[in-house]
Amino acid sequence: MIESTEFFRGTLTERRRDMLVANTRTKRAGTVDDAADLVGFLAGPGTGHLTGQAIHLNGGAHLGR
User: Fold this and answer.
1) Is 30 buried (19+), middle (13-18) or exposed (0-12) by CB count in 10 A?
2) Strands (E), 1-65
3) Where are the domains of the chain?
């Protein structure tokens, strides 16, 4: 869950938000800056050999395989 976006279109209740945050390993909601930092990393020179990845930006709520 990334807060400060229109994803939930005003339908996210406080109870649902608390549950989503509790399910993360970081115990916090994601931010737009978290997403921007990931994009910056992926666009950087250190990822020149990275291909075909699914990256889960969710604070550990869902772990990849």
Assistant:
1) buried
2) none
3) 1-65
The token pair that represents 44 in the structure block: 């950087």
Tell me the C-alpha distance between 42 and 48, whole Å: 9
CA of residue 61 relative to chain centroid, distance: 9
Instruction: Report CA-CA distances (Å) from 7 to 12, 31, 41, 62.
Output: 9, 13, 23, 18
Largest CA distance in the chain: 42
pLDDT tens per residue, the chain (65 residues)? Answer: 898 889 888 899 999 999 999 999 999 999 999 999 999 999 999 999 999 888 999 999 988 66
Q: Which two tokens mark 20?
A: 């989503």
